[in-house]
Amino acid sequence: MSTTATRPAPTTTADEVSALDAWLSATDVMRDGAAPEVRAAFLRDAVAHHVAHNPAYARYADGLDPATIDVDTLDRIPLLPSGVFKRAADLVRTGDEPVVQTTSSGTQGTVSRVPRDDATLMRFFASVTAATHELLDVEHAETVVHNVGPRVDESQHLWISYVMSGVSVLHETDFYVRDGAVETERLVAALAADDPSVPSLVVGPPPLLWDLAHALRSHPLPAHPRRFAVTIGGWKGRQGQAVARDALHDALVPSLGLHGVGAVRDAFNMVELNTIALECAHHAKHCPPWLYVSARDPRTLAPVEPGESGLLAYCDPTPTSFPGFVLSEDFGWVDRDVACPCGVTGDVLRIERRVNRLESRGCAMKI
Ligand SMILES: [Zn+2]
Question: Which of 28, 39, 100, 191 sits a CA distance of 20 to 30 A from 291?
Fold first, then answer.
């Protein structure tokens, strides 16, 4: 981009956009944290952007003046129930930049469609970069990634493929799912050939990493002090076989030659969320400082008391092509300003469980 004397001064919006991008890619953004006022200011600007460029969201916000959003009023940001992304995907589109429709997995009628433009995708990848760099402490240039998933171009814009690829963007990566099947032999051979002095990430959904652990049970891999296993997503079609995290940790550590349970990490994301929350070595899911998560009473949507469980609501200033203010279908907690032994201070997210059908009937999240 060239700058000349005749070029008009950037609008306030463009200034704010670049300020947010600079923050997302700042060194040690997770560790430095930020004043809550900084997060509130970016969220206020994001609300203003979506109210100005998304008529349906503006109607939904019902006369809310974005200028009234500050550090004390974040809970007034109008939240889109995640079901809207299934039923009325047209209504969530902000602006007119070209987008890809990223999708959740699911059967017809239950698939969420989230429009992402380039700026939104780049910011998502910036969130992954910040988390992997600071919480896994791996330098991008030298890391090898074994992605137990398909390439994005083979996955019909399935969002989990973007999420798993996000971890791979700047790394040497190989993909081990072709035509829906894991190439276990090729994966095991590649893992066995890893250089123990080079960081190695094994990334995949929990059921596929569980299968890998079992495939290696009788011939575990040699110890690798710099290998991590990162789980992304849930058990989906294999929910009936889901195992507790401790059992998964106990299976993965010996089979992959990991240095301990701290080397197994879960990364939380959902298709409507443009940021990941990655676990540190202490299995705390750290919210990056730009993301405001709160737990809400499912009937009134009022914030619950600190430490109580509620429906999780996410306010994410990073997406430009859809409002990143989403009421999820997950129950959980947010612990505020936790000084974690890993060195990060900030909000820690704990996901408890999915809302059940009965609860969803009595729930205020329907619009
Ligand atoms: Zn931590």
Answer: 100
